[in-house]
């Protein structure tokens, strides 16, 4: 097991003092936009609503693709406790999400977004690791994303990662959908709206994995997508205020359904994965045929933008003045000096601080113990004072 660094971001200086190098020490040339889009590895970004089964799906896909595609695996969920597969790159090795929450005074979702932002500062090096994986024979790179879907799909870092990968490697999106939860027409429609918005936002080949078919057959979803009348009938059974909206939406999404590929799977039992892999290969062909020219153009445009002369903020009119954020918020240490570093197998420093969670738990236990002791002490003192007072008043009465 990889030992977790104790600070919010693993500091490159930690690794520099070590016998084992960090990623910044091995003179890793960051992959630049000047290189064209490669043939491999194919990046498969796994998205889906919380609890839809993304992580279980990722594990199952790895198993089914192992022999043929030798997947390189990336976990981008900083908040998960553990993953049921061996990840080659795990965001949790790069950014300590709990420490981020503490230092930046954030709630859980803000912590996840910030952790992802920090990881994204190393995007060129992340891309370089993926490229090297391709050269070592990994034909696929499977990327598991955070539980809260909006954290990835609607954050700047999610876009940077998705577009960054798509301008360097063939990239597709697999949207995992829970068929059991989608048996409610309104939930189905919410899921479809999400899928639709992601499809248009990412502009990548898109495949819907209808997951958990061991619990419920997915043919009803496919029927709802192809036959408007059947969906209307299902909607009639529900008495909800949102029915009108759902009905209108289903009409709007009709054209979107036509271009969608769906595939029933069970991440738990493995049913449907042989077909799913065929669909993934079709999506890769689709990327090569329809999307690659678009991303190639985007890559060249970005390269031109990068090479254009950039003016320092001082010469820009109305550059403005930075103001401190929030109330009494101490600015956390800046990360501009390369203090976030990316870890991958063989780059893990030998000497790491004690496991953060363990030490945090110990500290918490000690504090709780102290709090409890002082509570008992206060209680005993109060009791004693009460007894003394009673004795005094009894003596006064007697005298
Ligand atoms: N029966 C059944 N259960 C499944 C299947 N896939 C996932 N699950 C269960 O669904 C639950 C959620 O699965 P996860 O893989 O953690 O889902 P996730 O989308 O990664 O979850 P978050 O990242 O927390 O949003 C777990 O209890 C899984 O065991 C499946 O195909 N069949």
Describe this structure in words.
It comes from Drosophila virilis. Residues 1-15 have a biased composition (Low complexity). This is GPN-loop GTPase. Pfam families: ATP_bind_1. Residues 385-399 have a biased composition (Basic and acidic residues). By secondary structure, the protein is an alpha/beta fold. It folds into 2 domains: 12-307, P-loop containing nucleotide triphosphate hydrolases (Rossmann fold, 3-Layer(aba) Sandwich), CATH 3.40.50; 358-388. Helices cover 51% and strands 9% of the residues. It has 15 helices and 7 strands. It has helices at residues 12-16, 54-69, 91-94, 97-104, 108-120, 123-135, 149-153, 156-166, 185-202, 219-226, 228-236, 243-252, 254-258, 273-307, 356-398, and strands at 42-48, 72-75, 89-90, 140-144, 171-178, 206-211, 261-264. It has a 7-stranded parallel β-sheet with strand order 3-2-4-1-5-6-7, with helices on both faces. α9 (185-202) links the parallel β5 (171-178) and β6.
Question: Brief overview, please?
Answer:
By secondary structure, the protein is of the alpha/beta class. The chain has helices at 12-16, 54-69, 91-94, 97-104, 108-120, 123-135, 149-153, 156-166, 185-202, 219-226, 228-236, 243-252, 254-258, 273-307, 356-398; strands at residues 42-48, 72-75, 89-90, 140-144, 171-178, 206-211, 261-264.
């Amino acid at each position: 097991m990889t030992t977790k660094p104790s600070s919010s971001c693993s500091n490159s200086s930690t690794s520099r003092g070590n016998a084992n190098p960090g990623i910044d020490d091995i003179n890793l040339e960051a992959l630049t936009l000047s290189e064209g889009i490669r043939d491999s590895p194919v990046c498969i970004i796994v998205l889906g609503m919380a609890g839809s089964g993304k992580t279980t799906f990722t594990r199952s896909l790895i198993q089914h693709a192992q022999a043929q595609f030798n997947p390189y695996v990336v976990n981008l969920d900083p908040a998960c406790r553990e993953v049921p597969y061996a990840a080659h790159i795990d965001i949790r090795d790069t950014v300590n999400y709990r420490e981020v929450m503490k230092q930046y005074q954030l709630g859980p979702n803000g912590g996840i977004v910030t952790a992802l932002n920090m990881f994204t500062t190393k995007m060129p090096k992340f891309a370089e690791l993926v490229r090297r994986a391709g050269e070592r024979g990994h034909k696929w790179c499977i990327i598991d994303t955070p539980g809260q879907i909006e954290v990835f799909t609607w954050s700047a870092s999610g876009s940077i990662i998705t577009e960054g990968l798509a301008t360097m490697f063939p990239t597709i999106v697999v949207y995992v959908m829970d068929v059991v939860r989608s048996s409610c027409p309104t939930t189905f429609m919410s899921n479809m709206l999400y899928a639709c918005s992601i499809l248009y936002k990412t502009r990548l080949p898109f495949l819907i994995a209808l997951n958990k078919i061991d619990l419920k057959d997915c043919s009803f979803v496919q029927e709802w997508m192809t036959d408007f009348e059947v969906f209307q009938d299902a909607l009639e059974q529900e008495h909800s205020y949102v029915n009108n909206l759902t009905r209108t939406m289903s009409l709007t999404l009709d054209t979107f359904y036509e271009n969608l590929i769906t595939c029933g799977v069970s991440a738990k039992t493995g049913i449907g994965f042989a077909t799913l892999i065929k669909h993934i290969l079709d999506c890769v062909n689709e990327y090569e045929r329809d999307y690659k020219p678009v991303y190639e153009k985007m890559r060249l445009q970005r390269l031109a933008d990068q090479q254009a002369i950039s003016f320092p903020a001082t010469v820009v009119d109305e550059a403005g003045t930075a103001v401190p954020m929030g109330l009494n918020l101490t600015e956390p240490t800046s990360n501009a000096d390369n203090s976030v570093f990316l870890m991958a197998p063989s780059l893990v420093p030998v000497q790491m601080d004690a496991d953060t969670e363990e030490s945090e738990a110990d500290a918490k236990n000690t504090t709780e113990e102290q709090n409890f002791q002082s509570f008992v002490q206060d209680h005993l003192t109060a009791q004693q004072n009460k007894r003394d007072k009673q004795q005094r008043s009894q003596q006064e009465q007697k005298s």
